[in-house]
Amino acid sequence: MQRAHATCTDSELPLSRQMPPAHPFDDDKLREECGIFGVIGLTDAASFVALGLHALQHRGQEAGGIVSHDPEQGFNSVRRFGYVRDNFTSQSLMETLPGPLAIGHVRYSTAGSKGAAIRDVQPFFGEFSMGGAAIAHNGNITNANALRKELIERGSIFQSGSDSECIIHLMARSLQRNIPERMEDALRRVEGAFSVVAMTRSKLIGVRDPLGVRPLVLGQLGEGWVLSSETCALDIIGARFIREIAPGEMVVISEKDGVESHFPFRRQPSKFCIFEHVYFSRPDSIIGGRSVYETRHQIGVELAREAPVEADLVCPVPDSGTPAAIGFSHESGIPFAMGIIRNQYMGRTFIEPTEQIRNMGVRLKLNVNRALIQGKRVILVDDSVVRGTTSRKIKEMILDAGAKEVHFRIASPPTAWPCFYGVDTPQREKLLAATMSEEEMRAHLAVDSLRFISLDGLYRAVGQGQGRDAKCPQYCDACFSGDYPVAPSDMIEQGFALKPAAE
What we know:
Elements: E1 9-12, E2 34-40, H1 45-55, E3 63-70, E4 74-81, H2 84-87, H3 91-94, E5 101-107, E6 124-128, E7 131-141, H4 144-153, H5 165-173, H6 179-187, E8 192-199, E9 203-208, E10 217-221, E11 224-228, H7 232-237, E12 240-244, E13 250-254, E14 258-262, E15 272-273, H8 275-280, E16 286-287, E17 290-291, H9 292-306, E18 313-316, H10 322-332, E19 340-342, H11 355-360, E20 366-368, H12 370-373, E21 377-382, H13 389-400, E22 405-410, H14 432-435, H15 438-445, E23 449-452, H16 455-461, E24 475-476, H17 478-481, H18 489-493
Parallel strand pairs: 1-4, 15-24, 18-21, 21-22, 22-23
Antiparallel strand pairs: 2-5, 2-11, 3-4, 3-5, 6-7, 7-8, 8-9, 9-13, 10-11, 10-12, 13-14, 16-17, 19-20
Helix pairs in contact: 5-6, 9-10, 9-16
């Protein structure tokens, strides 16, 4: 019989294989960070994890991985590039992941090489004196470069380019008695944003950073327990939502003792990422006791109040702009219409794009419903404007279909600052709002009008009736305001300039 703490076996592709390129027609959105999911106390836990990761696929499409533990076979791992549906649906593969305890991760890289090898795919595994442990991380460690340098100088050998691997090495060097305590010790050294799902031979562990920037929820299915980035992934396996893991909380779950909770970090005011409400989370998820769909609908209502315009149709840029467009339509009284249709079968690997196909741009993903658009004054509602390249192409498509006027209404404030907490954003100079005023952006996009929801309006839409508290913002809104709740140490060392205090 193999000992339960034996080194994790990893059924993976060769390390030399590189990840597939990002979709060539989808480079004008903020990337959805990562998704994490864990299960304990259920037969064939890895199969439930695969279903949960499928529901979290919107948070990362580059790669996914699952680690499981079985009392007889020990730890086992599978890591793959691509979609969950293409990798974790074969019975023969899932049979290599036995046991009642498993965690998983879907990835869009935010730290490490964009051409990274399979070794960058989480969960990561480490063998310690008291047994093995695996860890999956959503977020970004803002002092990872400094930690990595220190650890390498002290003898650590890194296997990946991911900032998350720092946690494993810090755990290995900790002098604490058991793995949960070592994880606490390690995470106290970490700056930035982290939601972590980890596992030992007998425990499932969940942790959120003291600011609670990234999400993590607890669910229950029969006698088993579930940790997930979002509630929508609980729904897919029929689990009951119990509660959110609180900012700064660590839960240690075992089949014997159930859920044990404590708070190892200094309490701080919560700074949950407000863009989870705007874009990242699925509309059928619940955040802070509030439906994401209803919040996005209310964003559209606030936007219609702040930026009214005479028009004939309100059309969403699918799919993320749809709830806000419905809210805008209801508040303004202007009819809602699906003026743009999304090709639901446009995968990331479509075909190797030739220059001619590249020039088709978003037409491969979106098509205008010409019969609705022709001769109309159209309001297009989108979730954000990043570089502006996609917005210009969509505007051209609408005009080519015979629209009389094109008005953009954006369901978030201007994105003028990069995120360092787990969202892949361009360099600041590549963000349209970093170098242009709203009127300059309107002229650049060549539309009849362009308006963004105000930061106060966004706060009202998410349930803060008095708007944003400028002295102590209730959310992390650094991508809009430049007010970073945790100083991005590594980026400052590389020359990134924070917003001046007087700005």
